[in-house]
Amino acid sequence: MNTLLKDIKDILPSWNKIKVYAFVGPSGTGKSYRAQMVAGEKDTHFIIDDGLLIKDNEVVAGESAKKAPTKVGTVKRALFYEDAKRQEIIKALKKYKPQSILILGTSDGMVKKIVENLGLPPISETIYINDVATKEEMETARRIRVTEGKHVIPVPTFEIKKDFSGYLLDPLQIFKMKGRGQKPYISEKSIIRPTFSYMGKFTISDLVFRQILEYLAAKTPSIYKIQRTRVENYGEGVRIYVEVTINYGFNVMQGLKEFKNKAKKEIEQQTSMNVVSLEVVAKNIYVPNKEEN
């Protein structure tokens, strides 16, 4: 038995009590796209998919199998045959101590092999793609995979890190219902093109930049909201113009500088594109219960 895995089991008596769910379906039928919905229905906050450990829409460990240079390498990485990748996931499970986890795979054998390689308890329940998707939906997903070479990772676009540089990122937001009488939810996914796909040049939608900027604005106390963005793509990189609303009570120049530095760093890290220039302009000041234009 792997020494690290044995140590974890000795330290964490609850390790064998982790409830393991499997979500199975042929490649390209929309499993990853529906993963968050299935996890939510099982009250599960952790997903293993494509070599990644995902916690509540955040990649916390692993490396996408789609980054492997060959299809054989992709399969090995997805099954955690590489000791370093396997140990990274096990350490993360030790850290987060999940009560349950959803594992995605193309077959019963694949998910069982993942469970075995990670030393997890036996699968308690298996959900199949045809339990949650219609034949037409699966055919559409497969057509997109075959004709466009795209794969969906079940995390928001802004969680895709530099590890994925060199792929096509395509933000996808869909307003869906879980079922009749159920609350609607927004499903946002990131579409990744693997390195061994030769389906065209590398492009990034302008919406990706805006999503990153809006995410950072929500994390920056001095910024109330993003008003307008403009992205110009040049051969050497991108030029970005941003108009923001500043929260009242903050130093405008300091707030703009802080946001600009964070935005440039994050955009370059997440898209691997060079930011030639980033101009941030304060257009409004927001006062609680009153907006000064």
Q: Residue-averaged pLDDT, rounded?
A: 76
Determine the fraction of residues in helical runs and give it as a percent range: 25-40%
- Give the number of helices: 9
**Beta content:** 25-35%
Number of domains: 2
The H/E string reads: HEHEEEHHEHEHHEEEHEEHEE
Shape: elongated
| Low-pLDDT segments, ≥5 res | 156-181, 183-188, 190-202
The level 1 CATH classification of the largest domain is Alpha Beta
How would you characterize the largest beta sheet?
A: 6 strands, mixed
Strand order of the largest sheet: 4-3-2-5-1-6
- At the fold tier of CATH, the topology name of the largest domain is Rossmann fold
Please compute the radius of gyration using only Cα atoms: 21 Å
Structural class: alpha/beta
Sum this structure up briefly:
This protein is an alpha/beta fold. It has two domains: 3-192, Rossmann fold (3-Layer(aba) Sandwich); 206-292, Alpha-Beta Plaits.
Structural write-up:
The protein is α/β, with parallel strands linked by helices and 293 residues long. The chain folds into 2 domains: 3-192, Rossmann fold; 206-292, Alpha-Beta Plaits, CATH 3.30.70. The protein is 36% helix and 31% strand. The protein has helices at residues 3-11, 31-41, 71-78, 83-96, 108-118, 129-132, 135-148, 206-219, 252-271; strands at residues 19-24, 46-49, 52-55, 58-62, 100-105, 123-128, 151-153, 170-177, 184-192, 223-234, 237-247, 275-287, 290-292. A 6-stranded mixed beta sheet has the order 4-3-2-5-1-6, with helices on both faces. Strands 10-11-12-13 form a 4-stranded mixed beta sheet. Helix 8 packs across helix 9 (252-271). It is elongated, with a radius of gyration of 21 Å.
